[in-house]
Write a structure and sequence with these properties.
With about 650 residues, this protein is α/β, with parallel strands linked by helices. The chain folds into four domains: about 90 residues, no CATH class; about 240 residues, Tandem AAA-ATPase domain (Rossmann fold); about 200 residues, 3-Layer(aba) Sandwich (Rossmann fold), CATH 3.40.50.300; about 70 residues, no CATH class. Helices cover about 45% and strands about 15% of the residues. The strands form three sheets. A seven-stranded parallel beta sheet has the order 8-9-7-10-11-6-12, sandwiched between helices. Strands 13, 14, 15, 16, 17, 18 and 19 form a seven-stranded parallel beta sheet that branches. Helix 10 links the parallel strand 10 and strand 11. The longest helix has 28 residues.
Length: about 650
């Protein structure tokens, strides 16, 4: 039997020359279900040699050593062609290199560094414009020696500066000539800004997202004078993966490839994930960044490490099955031990407590009295929902309908707490009538100034006197518009940032780019101490990721709240981050209507936040961003005077 490599694929020839017993064992292993995925080539002539080859040539480096090992264990005679022998030597050399990287990365992660190497790296870091903090220096060194690593540090830890420091050293040593960043559009401007702040030069950059499709795709055929920084979105990669392969295949193009907010590629078999894995084999230096590597399940991390080490098969199919089994059976400890044994050395994680930031000051909630009409409307909506169960739907067993009505009812309650007139807005697939025609008329003709608006104006006056900036968080766009209107009426200069976070179904990169540019211009104006813009109104969905306000803003006011703990924590971090919050305390103000469910919402949110902080500080933080129906249960079990 001959093991050969032809046209980039692994081939087995003359396996029929084996003894019957050996042939049966080998063919079953080669072509059977869940094995090596060989296919037997049909013969056009009986005298043609017997040949089987891999269905997927990309797994050649994984399968070849397995074939050799299987043959040797069962004493099956084989002959390696010169091409197969050469490839096998390369595979073993790569395996040895990976073993060395694994050991060095593991030692560095645990503080056992090569003192001379670490000194050399820290001396290099001293040449950068922006000094790195101690936790960033260790993260930078770890990524430097790992070459294809992950940084799972918490949001606000300064991951971008870490990557830029490694890129700069690689660039100076002639190992890379471009930084290619793939991520949501919202990360583009921060990368451009951080590049200049960290490396003391404005990069030549190219945005490969939106714009003229023909011009964009022509860029993939560039053969010289490559921009120093490329920025592209997940959606663009979905459409341009084949074109990007052309650029990555260019022998003169040597990128450091970075995936920012890598949790977007967590879905195994997802379109974005498949596009990322398609181009995984091209770069010698890669990095993935996310503060939430496993938002829901341990398997969320599989794609990330397949991208980093596509030919090394770090997390094998058997490993994945075992980890999934542990998770399905709530054997969390076993799953973590298994994962850590496989990927532990290849990622670095800085916890919130490691950042040495100043305290976050959560001031006592400001209790606000509702004005008469909003009190009447809220009481009517709340009492209806509390006393009218969904029992008729529960008997039908239609969980989807029940869940949709639970969510819609909670939206109605939150609308009545934010701005009464929001109750006029339709909710898709929800037509329940919660009040009579008299209340409906009062809502339609609502002109009363909500009590929270008066409270906001009083707070803003105090910030104005102290010459301090403030970000006001609100969830409903109608409420944001209301706040903006009344601030303007009272002579306060303010601007708003509203929108949605990127989702996989987004199909208009240009529209997203335009919206992001507008958001970035507002953010920069707000941060400018001489701009005269000291009030920013935003919803957490628009500012959930990649937006930093901490350098000149230290106050946040929460006009209303939702039960989305992930967005809440992200909003807290907007004014509490590395690069300013080490010495400056952050202050948080919460408005809540007295004798409503709002104190319960805040209490539950703080409780969830504390639990999530405990989870996030672990190496393998798994938590659900979906609060389920807990929020609805708060309503139907509430016992409050209304």
């Amino acid at each position: 039997m001959i093991i050969d490599i032809k046209d980039g694929n692994l081939c087995i020839l003359n396996y029929n020359n084996l003894s019957p017993g050996q042939k049966i064992k080998f063919v079953l292993k080669a072509t059977g279900s869940g094995s090596w995925h060989f296919k037997i080539n049909p013969k056009s002539n009986p005298e043609d040699p017997d040949i089987m080859d891999l269905e997927d040539p990309s797994i050649l480096d994984i399968v070849l050593p397995k074939v050799i090992s299987f043959c040797e264990n069962l004493s099956i005679p084989y002959h390696l062609s010169s091409s197969a022998s050469e490839r096998l030597n390369i595979i073993y050399a790569h395996k040895e290199t990976l073993h060395i990287i694994r050991k060095n990365s593991y030692d560095a992660k645990n503080g056992d560094v090569n003192k001379e190497d670490f000194k050399q790296h820290t001396n290099f870091l001293k040449t950068l414009r922006r000094p790195l903090y101690d936790h960033q220096k260790m993260a930078s060194y770890h990524l430097w020696i790992t070459k294809k690593g992950a940084n799972f540090s918490v949001p606000g830890a300064g991951k971008t500066s870490v990557v830029l420091s490694v890129f700069e050293r690689l660039r100076r040593e002639g190992k890379v000539n471009a930084l290619y960043v793939l991520g949501p559009v919202a990360c583009f401007n921060p990368w451009i800004d951080e590049f200049k702040e960290t490396l003391d030069r404005k990069p030549s950059y190219k945005i490969l997202a939106g714009g003229n499709i023909k011009e964009r795709r022509n860029e993939y055929h560039r053969t010289q004078d490559f921009p120093e920084l490329y920025l592209s979105s997940f959606h663009t990669l979905l459409n341009d993966a084949n074109y990007l392969e052309t650029l990555l295949s260019n022998k003169d193009f040597h990128p450091f490839f970075v995936i920012d907010e890598a949790h977007y590629i967590k879905q195994t078999g997802g379109a974005w994930a498949n596009s990322v894995l398609q181009i995984a084999k091209y770069s010698d230096y890669k990095c993935i960044l996310t503060g939430t590597p496993m938002p829901n399940k341990y398997k969320d991390i599989f794609n990330m490490f397949e991208f980093l080490w596509p030919q090394q098969n770090l997390i094998t199919a058997e490993d994945q099955l075992k980890i999934n089994f542990y998770e399905e059976n709530s054997q969390w400890g076993n799953a973590e031990v298994k994962l850590n044994d496989i990927i532990g050395p290849y990622f670095y994680r800085v916890r919130k407590k490691d950042l040495n930031l100043s305290d976050q000051k959560f001031l006592d909630p400001i209790n606000v009295r509702m004005n008469p009409i909003e009190r009447e409307v809220y009481d009517r909506v709340f009492n209806y929902i509390q006393h009218n169960t969904l029992e008729q739907y529960e008997h039908g067993g239609n969980d989807e309908v029940i869940g949709r009505m639970h969510r819609a009812r909670m939206i109605r309650i939150r609308q009545s707490l934010a701005y009464t007139k929001l109750l006029n807005n339709a909710i898709p697939d929800y037509e329940e009538v919660l009040y009579d025609s008299d209340i409906a008329r009062k809502i339609a003709n609502y002109e009363e100034i909500p009590g929270k608006i008066t409270a906001i104006l009083n707070l803003v006056k105090n910030f104005k006197i102290k010459q301090e900036k403030v970000v006001i968080w609100a969830h409903f766009i109608g409420a944001i518009n209301l706040i903006e209107t009344h601030l303007y009426k009272n002579g306060f200069n303010c601007k708003k940032i509203i929108g949605e976070t990127p989702v996989q179904s987004t199909n208009n990169d240009q529209q997203e780019l335009n919206a992001e540019q507008t958001r970035e211009e507002i953010r920069k104006e707000f941060l400018d101490t001489k701009s005269g813009l000291d009030i920013l109104i935003a919803n957490p969905a628009a500012c959930a990721e990649s937006i930093s306000l901490h350098k000149t803003c230290y106050n946040a006011v929460y006009y209303d709240l939702s039960y989305n703990c992930a967005e809440y924590l992200q909003s807290l971090d907007r004014i509490h981050r590395v690069g300013g919050s080490e010495t400056q305390e952050s202050y948080y103000y919460f408005l809540q209507y007295a004798d409503t469910i709002e104190p319960s919402i805040l209490g539950k949110l703080k409780e969830k936040a504390e639990k999530m902080y405990q989870i996030i500080d672990k190496d393998y933080p798994i938590y659900s961003l979906d609060t389920g129906d807990l929020e609805y249960a708060d309503v139907v079990t509430a016992n409050e005077p209304v």
